[in-house]
Every structure is written in C-alpha cells, then in structure tokens.
Write a structure and sequence with these properties.
With about 210 residues, the chain is α+β, with helices and mostly antiparallel strands. Helix content is about 25%, strand content about 30%. It has helices at about 35-45, 60-65, 65-75, 85-90, 90-100, 170-180, 200-205; strands at about 1-10, 15-20, 25-30, 50-55, 75-80, 115-120, 125-130, 140, 145-150, 155, 160, 190, 195-200. The chain has a 6-stranded mixed sheet. A 5-stranded mixed sheet has the order 1-2-3-4-5. Strand 10 and strand 11 form a beta hairpin. The chain starts with a strand and ends in a 7-residue tail after the last helix.
C-alpha cells in the first residue's frame, strides 16, 4: 500500500507530504518548503528511508528547502516541468522577498513532463502538467489510492493565484477541467494549503470551477 502523511511547513502553512511504500519503507517528500528538521524527525519516527524529493512547482514555500535537503542527504530532485526553471533559479531572491530563511537555487536531477511517472518503492504515480499558477506546475496522481497531490492548482473552495509572473487564469481553469476532472470525482486531492477535498466536491461547490 502507498501511504502518505501531510505536514504543514513554513509561515505559509504549506502542505508538504511524505509518501512511502508501506512494505519497503522507501519514501519521497513532496514540496519540502522548509522546516527540514521537523520533516526529518517525522521520517525517523515512521522508520522511512527518504530517497527522493518531488517538486510540484518552484515557489519558495514549496521548494525553499529542496536544495539544502538534497545536499544534506544526497537526494535527487525530481520535477517540476522545465517551464518553472526561472522560479527555481530565483529561489534566493524569493526567500528575501517573502522573508524566508536563505534558500539555495535548485537544479533538478530530472525535469518532468505530462504523461511521465514517478516511483517510490513498488508504486508509480502519474504526472500531469497543470500550468496556470506557474507555467511549469505538475501534479502527482496515484490511481491505486485515488489521491492526487496538486500543489497550488486547486484548493478546497478556491483555486491557485495567477497574479505571479507567467501565471494565467484561463490556463489554470483549463488545467483543472482538462487535466484534473478526468481523474474522477472520487479522487481525493491534497492541496498545497488547507484541507483535503475531492474533485467531485469541488465540481459541485467550488465557486471558481463549479459546474465545469
């Protein structure tokens, strides 16, 4: 079974998730924006072997700790899509702008594209390129457990901001309706901030995408 634990990190309460293979205890961390000692304490508590860093996009609250974590543990950084390269290159400037601890620029070991897969232990997750919040944003979907880690594309009752550089509202709506809804109403998603919800619930009640 694929398991996960979501841990809010940074002053922005960003949902960082540990995902792991229950049998092998091999694990990946999605969007380690900061609070690395807290994250590593959870890894130790759960008896996991942390082997990978997966990034949904390049904003500081999601990627700010990735460079240091990769360096400390010699971990590969996987994702996001190469269209977010300028965000990752500018992490040091982002950290100053938003009052974060100094962040290291990140050069992913592997960029991701729509239709790719990532694996942890015996489990594979599908990658969907979902631009709009940022141009290189990706989502990780596990059909096995009907879960999607969607970063800042979609929230319970809201959607991602599009007023940052290279954000685009129409593109974001298209990503949600064309890349997320086909995964099924039953799919529960873990957003970048706030509580979990399901695609079906958001299609019925989210004022930004209701009825789409």
């Amino acid at each position: 079974m694929l398991r996960y634990l979501t841990i809010p990190v940074t002053a922005f309460a960003q949902n960082c998730s540990l995902v792991w293979d229950e049998d092998s205890r091999q694990a990946a961390v999605i969007d380690p924006g900061g609070d690395l000692d807290r994250l590593l304490a959870e890894v130790q508590r759960l008896g996991l072997s942390l082997e990978q860093i997966w990034l949904t996009h390049g904003h500081i609250d999601h990627a700010g700790g990735a460079g240091e974590l990769a360096r400390r543990l010699s971990l590969p950084i996987i994702g996001p899509h190469p269209a977010d390269r300028f965000w990752l290159d500018g992490l040091a400037q982002q950290s100053m702008m938003f009052g974060f601890a100094p962040a290291e620029p990140v050069a992913p070991t592997r960029w991701l594209h729509d239709g790719d897969t990532v694996s942890v232990g015996a489990h594979s997750l599908n990658v969907r390129h979902c631009p709009g919040h940022t141009p290189g944003h990706v989502v990780f979907h596990s059909p096995q457990i009907d879960r999607a880690f969607v970063g800042d594309v979609l929230f319970a009752g809201s959607i991602g901001r599009t007023d940052f550089p290279q954000g685009d509202h129409d593109t974001l709506i298209a990503s949600i309706t064309q890349r997320l809804w086909p995964l099924g109403d039953q799919t529960v998603f873990i957003p970048g901030h706030g509580p979990e919800s399901s695609f079906g619930r958001e299609r019925r009640s989210n004022p930004y995408v209701r009825g789409t």
